[in-house]
Specification:
Elements (H helix, E strand, L loop, with lengths): L12 H24 L5 H10 L17 H14 L1 H5 L2 H13 L2 H12 L9 E2 L11 E4 L5 E4 L2 E2 L10 E7 L5 E5 L3 E4 L2 E4 L2 E4 L14
Parallel strand pairs: 2-5
Antiparallel strand pairs: 1-4, 2-3, 3-8, 5-6, 6-9, 7-8
Length: 216
């Protein structure tokens, strides 16, 4: 990920709502034109990153404002009023942060919360595409002989994945139980397969995993 200026640090529920309201107004100025021209909200997502709104659910114990669920809902509503696409994209980001809060180890909390407070955004590659006969699809992860890890499968509803900094991937290790794995999007990809150099597992049973090691 390229080096970016630090995101703004929001410190309270009230400030989160105020920042979201002001950003919503700016988004609304160009949302219809952008949608009509089928242009991706690249600049708008950069502004969302810089605003600090992506870090509002990081707990105070880890340097964030730890806003309430009510405030988070208000922020998403405001963003969606300004631009429905921009309001939709962070949903999986906040889901991922909640998964980290519920299941991550102490080292993982420090690592991922630190990234988010810098402005990192999580995408989504959780839902497996069904097979032609309607049966459930699968995605697997295994060490790649050339280094890193090999993820093989097909995903649907991958909201925000193409522009995200990190992408949560639900995959089944060859010798373990299913778990979600956070993978850097800087991967070598071909249809159905991606090779990633840096992956970190988050599951109730997982200890901290480091780049270049198989999640334990």
């Amino acid at each position: 990920m390229a080096s970016l200026p630090p995101a703004y640090l929001i410190t309270s529920d009230a400030e989160a709502v105020d920042v979201a309201a002001r950003l919503s107004a700016r988004l609304a100025e160009t949302a219809a034109e952008r949608d009509l021209g089928r242009r991706l909200p690249v600049a708008e997502l950069a502004e969302l990153r810089a605003s600090g709104l992506l870090g509002i659910t990081v707990p105070r114990s880890h340097g964030g404002p730890g806003v309430s669920s009510r405030t988070l809902g208000t922020v998403i509503r405001l963003l969606s009023c300004g631009d429905g696409s921009v309001g939709q994209i962070p949903q999986n980001h906040f889901f991922c942060l909640d998964a980290v809060r519920e299941s991550g180890s102490a080292d993982q909390l420090d690592f991922f919360y630190g990234l988010v407070l810098q402005g990192v955004r999580f995408g989504n590659a959780l839902v497996n595409t069904r097979q032609p006969d309607g049966s459930a699809g699968t995605t697997t992860i295994e060490p790649d002989p050339d280094g890193g890890y090999l993820v093989t499968g097909a995903k649907s509803y991958a909201t925000g994945a193409l522009s995200a900094d990190w992408v949560p991937v639900a995959a089944t290790p060859s010798s373990s139980t299913p778990r979600s794995t956070l993978a850097s999007p800087r991967a070598r990809c071909e249809p159905g397969r991606c090779t990633c150099a840096d992956m970190r597992a988050v599951s109730p049973a997982a200890g901290p995993s480091r780049p270049g090691t198989t999640p334990s």
